[in-house]
């Protein structure tokens, strides 16, 4: 008999053998519009058994590699800083064991916890950020720790020129003004991504890669808290993830699936397939 523990499909290797460690952050306390992202990691694991471990895109199979799924953290809902510290500690442990942390959100604020750990180990790290939203507000309704501020808090650590944003199509005027001076923002699509990755790859720059799934058009992915029309398609995102994974990825996440907001389950199925392809691109 085996222990009945649900992992993401094909990610049931021993911790010691794993190159990548998955862990979930079921947290959505600062969601500005429709909550529910806290149920993302659990839904992704459960629904992953509806897809195959084999990728016809890459002719690779998850079962040929060692990925450990650590399950979900038990996070404090009332206090964002406490939750972020728990996420940071988990990522720190994974990094100190020489493995790559892969975080499943949760709302996008959870990225800050994982990034703090990565930044401590790799102070020259760059960030690749796919999102519909700029996430560059200095505060949201007075809160500095909000999913609307996550890239601004990361900028507090990295300083100018290290954050590369793609698919951005929403934010207030101040965020876009801030981006002009302080981040490398590419609006609407992946224009400029190939050139950037060539450069980062040649310099072997460590890269943290954060994918807010709401970069995808709501017609294909409506199960998210702040859907934003005019997004990219699934195949386009797959291609862009493959491109970024050619760089030296030292930490990654997907976030902002709110499974309950898409009763059809299609958004969760899409997130599962993205996660499989993302892992296979990293392995
Ligand atoms: Mn975001
Ligand atoms: Mn977003």
Describe the structure.
The chain is an alpha/beta fold. Helices cover 33% and strands 18% of the residues. The chain is built from eight helices and ten strands. The chain has helices spanning 40-47, 80-96, 110-121, 150-158, 173-182, 193-202, 234-244, 266-282, and strands at 20-25, 54-55, 60-61, 67-72, 100-105, 126-130, 163-168, 184-187, 206-212, 248-255. It has an eight-stranded parallel sheet, sandwiched between helices. A two-stranded antiparallel sheet has the order 2-3. β7, α5 and β8 (184-187) form a beta-alpha-beta unit. The protein is globular, with a radius of gyration of 17 Å. The model has no long low-confidence stretch (mean pLDDT 97). The structure holds manganese (II) ion (2 copies). One manganese (II) ion binds at residues 131-133, 212, 214, 226, 256. One manganese (II) ion is lined by residues 108, 131, 133, 135, 147, 212.
Describe how the helices and strands are arranged.
Layout: E1 20-25, H1 40-47, E2 54-55, E3 60-61, E4 67-72, H2 80-96, E5 100-105, H3 110-121, E6 126-130, H4 150-158, E7 163-168, H5 173-182, E8 184-187, H6 193-202, E9 206-212, H7 234-244, E10 248-255, H8 266-282
Parallel strand pairs: 1-4, 1-5, 5-10, 6-7, 6-9, 7-8, 9-10
Antiparallel strand pairs: 2-3
The protein binds manganese (II) ion (2 copies).
One manganese (II) ion (MN) binds at residues 108, 131, 133, 135, 147, 212.
Specify the number of helices. Answer: 8
- Quick one: overall form? globular
Strands in their spatial order, largest beta sheet:
4-1-5-10-9-6-7-8
List unreliable stretches of 5+ residues.
none
DSSP strand tally: 10
Whole-number mean pLDDT: 97
| Structural class by helix and strand composition | alpha/beta
Structure ligands: manganese (II) ion
Computed over alpha carbons, the radius of gyration is: 17 Å
Largest sheet: 8 strands, parallel
């Amino acid at each position: 008999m085996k222990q009945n523990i649900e992992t993401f499909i094909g990610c049931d290797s021993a911790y010691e053998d794993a190159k990548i460690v998955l862990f979930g952050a079921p947290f959505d306390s600062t969601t500005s519009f429709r909550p529910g992202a806290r149920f993302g990691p659990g839904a992704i694991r459960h629904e992953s058994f509806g897809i195959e471990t084999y990728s016809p895109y890459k002719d690779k199979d998850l079962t040929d590699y060692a990925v450990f799924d650590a399950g979900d953290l038990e996070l404090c809902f009332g206090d964002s800083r406490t939750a972020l510290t728990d996420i940071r500690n988990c990522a720190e442990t994974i990094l100190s064991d020489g493995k790559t942390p892969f975080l499943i959100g949760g709302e996008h604020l959870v990225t800050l916890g994982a990034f703090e750990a990565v930044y401590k180990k790799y102070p020259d790290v760059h960030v690749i950020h796919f999102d519909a939203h700029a996430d560059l507000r200095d505060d949201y309704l007075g809160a500095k720790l909000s999913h609307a501020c996550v890239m601004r808090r990361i900028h507090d650590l990295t300083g100018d020129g290290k954050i590369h944003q793609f698919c951005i199509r929403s934010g207030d005027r101040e965020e876009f003004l801030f981006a002009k001076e302080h981040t490398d923002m590419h609006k609407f699509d992946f224009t400029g991504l190939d050139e950037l990755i060539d450069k980062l790859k040649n310099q072997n720059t460590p890269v943290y890669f954060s994918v807010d799934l709401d970069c995808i058009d709501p017609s294909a992915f409506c199960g998210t808290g702040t859907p934003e029309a005019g997004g990219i398609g699934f195949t386009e995102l797959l291609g862009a993830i493959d491109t970024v994974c050619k760089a030296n990825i030292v930490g990654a996440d997907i976030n902002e699936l709110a499974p309950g907001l898409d009763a059809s389950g299609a958004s969760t199925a899409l997130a599962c397939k993205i996660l499989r392809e993302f892992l296979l691109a990293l392995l």
